[in-house]
Design goal:
With 349 residues, this protein is of the alpha/beta class. It contains 13 helices and 14 strands. The protein is elongated and about 75 Å long.
């Protein structure tokens, strides 16, 4: 069984417990997230409702649900229950609500849990009532979002607990088209978002450094560009050696710079016994000595993250939070008693 401790630390979010009923606001396009426990991150062009419509259209294929049209009376109403089939952190409740509202605004959805809550195997944590045909049409799309987001949130929570006092970040290694959804799940799990895209933070990586002809030239070019464009945003530079860390600090001591964070990439060295050597990372953090935020990247796993977090690094980034997600098993059942019977037989309830 998974063990989860309370969210703590400067990088984590807390919300008050309550029963969530969002049907009233989900239909109001001017305030779509008014009653959501934890709102999605901001993105200037991302169309979350458009993603939901695309997912539903992909499922319908222009024909609709032929099975339901053949088997389900159009005016029949039922109640279906959400069932957790694994222990974990639930996420995507707010998004599932939006899916049901998109299919049929008359559907009533009630939850006994909110995004970010721990659920155990066998727990019924929500229900939807209304026309059976429309519930079944929305079912798989809603569950696909919830299962993926809950898997991300569950892993994020485990990583965030182990990383403390460092903050856990995801990366841009998200599923295409699901950038905001994946990063929302990280927030729900108690992590922090790295940059949303290419537009909201300068991140000088190895290829930029190679193109610019060195790390000093790259930072200098960014400083000049931001000043010319009168832009203010976070600036991070990737370093791969202690020599590069020294070079960055030397530049920053001589010039006014917009630099805010130094990435310490692959300074966690794996050992043959399965452990990691963090001495190089610790030396880099000590060199920087709080002059800039620091971010450890590379060889970050559940087994290594606690040791990395003890080096004094500010952030730890992990692409695995979103690119290697294991979905949390969740179902939506009309005949809940039979579903629980089958679940117990297969040890999934």
């Amino acid at each position: 069984m998974l063990s989860f401790s309370p969210l703590v630390g400067p990088c984590l979010f807390t919300t008050s417990r309550r029963i969530v009923r969002m049907a009233a606001t989900a239909g109001n396009p001017s305030k779509p997230f008014e009653s959501i426990a934890l709102k999605p991150p901001l993105h200037p062009t991302y169309d979350l409702k458009g993603i939901i419509k695309l997912a539903l259209a992909e499922d319908a294929g222009g024909q609709g649900d032929v099975t339901s049209m053949a088997t389900t009376p159009i005016d029949m109403e039922v109640e279906a229950n959400f069932l957790a089939k694994e222990d974990g952190i639930i996420a995507g409740i707010a998004l599932a609500e939006m899916v049901f509202q998109e299919v049929d605004p008359s559907l009533k959805v009630d939850w006994s849990q909110k995004d970010g809550d721990y659920v155990h195997k066998g727990l019924q944590f929500g229900k939807v009532y209304g026309r059976a045909h429309n519930i079944v049409v929305a079912e798989r799309v809603a569950l696909n979002f919830m299962q993926r987001m809950s898997g991300i949130a569950t892993l994020t929570k485990e990583m965030a607990d182990a990383a403390y006092p460092a903050c856990i970040l995801e990366t841009r290694k998200t599923a295409p088209g699901l950038r905001l959804v994946d990063k929302w799940a990280v927030l729900i799990g108690g992590g922090r978002n790295h940059r949303m895209g290419l537009f909201d933070m300068v991140l000088i990586k190895d290829n930029h450094i190679s193109i610019a002809g060195g790390i000093t030239n790259a930072i200098k070019s960014v400083d000049t560009y931001l000043e010319q464009k009168k832009l203010q945003m976070e600036v991070e530079v990737e370093t791969r050696t202690l020599e590069e860390v020294h070079e960055v600090l030397r530049y920053a001591s001589q010039k006014k710079t917009s630099l805010t964070r130094i990435m310490l990439d692959n300074m966690v060295v794996p050992l043959q016994n399965g452990d990691v050597d963090v001495s190089m990372l610790k030396e880099a953090v000590d060199l920087i000595n709080g002059r800039f935020d620091t971010e450890a990247s590379g060889n970050v796993t559940l087994e290594t993250i606690h040791k990395i977090g003890q080096t004094g690094v500010t952030y730890i980034s992990s692409g695995a939070l979103t690119h290697s997600v294991k979905a949390l098993d969740i179902s939506l059942k009309i005949d809940t008693e039979l579903a629980l019977l089958v679940g117990r037989r297969t040890k999934r309830a």
